[in-house]
Amino acid sequence: MLDLSFEAPKPKVIAGATGDWELVIGMEIHAQISTQAKLFSGASTTFGAEPNSNVAFVDAAMPGMLPVVNEFCLEQAVRTGLGLKAAINLRSAFDRKNYFYPDNPQGYQISQLYHPIVGEGEVLVEMGPGVARVVRIERIHVEQDAGKSIHDMDPNMSFIDLNRTGVPLMEIVSRPDIRGPEEAAAYVGKLRQILRYLGTCDGNMQNGNLRADVNVSVCRPGQYEKYQETQDFSHLGTRCEIKNMNSMRFIQQAIDYEARRQIAILEDGGKVDQETRLYDPDKGETRSMRSKEEAQDYRYFPDPDLLPLEIEQGWVDDIAATMPELPDAKKTRFMEGFGLTDYDASVLTAEVENADFFEAVVAVGEDGKLAANWVINELFGRLKKEGQEIGESPVSPAQLGGVIKLIKSGDISGKIAKDLFEILWTEGGEPAAIVEERGMKQVTDTGAIEKAVDEIIAANPAQVEKAQQNPKLAGWFVGQVMKSTGGKANPAAVNALVMAKLGL
Amino acid sequence: MSLNKLTIADARDLLKKGEVTSVQLTEACLSAIESADALNAFVHKTPEIALERAKAADARIAQGDAPSMCGIPVGIKDLFCTEGVPSQAASNILKGFKPEYESTVTTQLRDAGAVMLGKLNMDEFAMGSSNESTCYGAAVNPWRREGETTPLTPGGSSGGSAAAVAADLCLGATGTDTGGSIRQPAAFTGTVGIKPTYGRCSRWGIVAYASSLDQAGPMTKSVRDAAIMLQAMAGHDAKDSTSADIAVPDFEAALTGDIRGQKIGIPREYRVDGMPADIAKLWEDGTAMLKDAGATIVDISLPHTKYALPTYYVIAPAEASSNLARYDGVRYGHRASLSSGEGINDLYEKTRAEGFGPEVQRRIMVGTFVLSAGFYDAYYNRARKVRALIKRDFEQAFEAGVDAILAPTTPSAAWGLGEMKDANPVEMYLQDVFTVTLNLAGLPGVAVPAGLDAKGLPLGLQLIGKPWGEAELLNTALVLEQAAGFVSKPAKWW
Known about the structure:
- The complex is a heterodimer.
- Chain A is of the alpha+beta class.
- Chain A contains 16 helices and 16 strands.
- Chain A has helices at about 70-85, 180-200, 225-230, 250-265, 315-320, 325-340, 340-350, 350-365, 370-385, 395-410, 415-425, 430-435, 445-460, 460-470, 475-485, 490-500; strands at about 15, 20-30, 90, 95-100, 110, 120-130, 130-145, 150, 160, 170-175, 210-220, 240-245, 275-280, 285-290, 300, 310.
- By secondary structure, chain B is an alpha/beta fold.
- Chain B has a domain at about 5-260: Amidase signature (AS) enzymes (Alpha-Beta Complex), CATH 3.90.1300.10.
- Helix content of chain B is about 35%, strand content about 10%.
- In chain B, helix 7 (about 225-235) packs antiparallel against helix 15 and helix 9 crosses helix 12 (about 375-400).
- Chain B is globular, with a radius of gyration of 21 Å.
- Chain B starts with 7 loop residues before the first helix and ends in a 10-residue tail after the last helix.
């Protein structure tokens, strides 16, 4: 039975002049929902379109225009909630978050403050074999994105692109359960993996389709445990929110910098001000964006243009029935079913396309471990070298499975298999047929092998003597026999015969 | 008789018989409009569009099987977005705004063959009860006090619509009603106006004031006309999430004139202190008329009525403050010119200060205040709770068997333009005391002219119906209309 128990990772500790400090981190992930149409307008969500070309009257907030919710976005949010083992709220509602900005044409963003569609859930964040953190999810709500302001095209003017206005986002809010920069990055990575498995967000951080607001505070050892017991935030330090991060590396750097900044303030006898900060990757530091006092009053209230959202349990059940196997389950199955190591199973399940490829290889090759080795080492190695994605692999799962089948049956050796893989990569073809046509089949006829062994032994009496004194040198004879047979001899059979003939 | 004086029902019958053409009707209205600039009702005239549609309507009628509104010249409140035609909500901030789209209600009217004559004056963003708060200058009531020449308000916010219908500039007009904006001007001008159940008419393409209260409805010369015109305006619209997917009955077919056995409730809380004797008597007379027609009269209580006005003046401005945030000078409408060194906040502040009139600014500020952190629960949230109680009052009355409720439409007849200029805004808000409750409860209400006051000005009675009960409500209104026998028209002075 597979041991799936794990221990929580140690929190990151930073040694200060006055003693140790621990980090406490909570995150708000804004994930763009994978969908063709915007949340309330029906305009396209295609990335990279001409500025202001994906804009409906609703998105431009023309007078009298009304939002109509895109049901598919709600389905995606529910699917995400189910994937995070979260409670689905059958009754939720949209609220308006009011603020003025030119890329926010309505003067309000439609969001869900009071009644989000998804409630509490959790994410298992693995930090290594047997080490993992359960990060609690507080809620997921659906909201519309703002447009884009471009301030550096003209010295006197700002430009506005409304293509992104109204694009649907899920805001996934965690509890402050993350305890270090590496954990934060791993959390984002895990969430991204789950969303990609679910097909609810493509996780493209470069395009801003997955962005994080990171809340960081520091506390003395022992304080966090008091918070855990009571859920009373007063045990924790004052937090600062670092906005809009779209790189795992920057997230880690920003958290580290921010924690040290807060510690320096506290050790100087100062007080951390609750504020919103921005990370400057060029300088490697965070700087203040606005203080709590400057924080806007968003005057949230229920959007009167949209009726409360009521969904049926049956609809949720239908979505649940079509849920794909998720990373944790798949990894466990790979370890249990195929005897893979934790590491190999993690690599193969990192992307669902990889896992699918692997399983298709196993279906033909019928050897999980061998398939894992070949997929991870040969295939991934070659793809990486060529700069190709798994979907572009010239060798299909069926072909690779065929190779593995030939190895397993003893028809070809591992070395020949590599040659065969090369042929398949460059020329294509059916593995068994290639092996047959090109005479690559391993020689298992002991008579032929015996003849070759005898010849080598007869021709090298000095080597025989040495090998008899030092059996490790018997390998030289095996090598010579393999060479003389053009690599086609079954290495195991050669080895057995060499040992017998040398009397070892 | 001039063709512009016809009712919709009569014009329809004549059109069907081929005795008049839509072009003739339209020309009669256009000529009446041309000589009625003193009323300042039509603020954008569209004679070319009107004649083009009239010709198309005549062709359609000639082919037979045309809907009732086909060929009928109507006026459109400026709050409705009409494609290629200025749609400004009577505000400077939308100066020159010509939408590239047509509201659902006006699209339905157009598709039914109705002929748009132009856009009608109103209070800016539908905020007001006198049609004095408008970038076009006040609309003027065609009615005058006997022996006086003082210009009177036609009411608001659909004052232009009411004045145009009362002065026979059109056969019917669209209005919108957020707190009484159809019913109060109807009462002030001796016309009929119905605010349908919330969700009956699509709000798509109508400039929003307070989304949870706004409803479009017809303003006409008779109850039958209201039934005919509402038929064309009503219906589910997938583009408006708050529009109800409920079948629209045949409103005109429901006008049987038989209300025997109906139970009419008289709400005691509407008997406010200081109610003018004229209004009190009108209410009593109306009650007697319905009783004579075979209805049972019962006293009912709507205990939360006294909270309706403050509730309305929290919820409506709150929604307005958010709905009007889009008028920022960035994409359309008025944009203030900036001096060098001024930034985006200056653009917002100057544009909005220049573009919005004082009443709109007042409501935006009130709305912003009641939604602010620290005040939300005390104002907005409490108002929402009271709103639920007001709705419950009506539900209980209907559950107890009441079919309709009779009340005055307004606490007074039309007053002189400028008379309320120096009054506290709350005094103006008090004009809505009998009307706002329906908007808060989402119920249909119809204003029917039922008599004249001592100075010869029209007064209206209001019938309140069950949700989706417009057909029955209009039938009761027909009985009241017939019994009251209101046939007076304003003497033409313009």
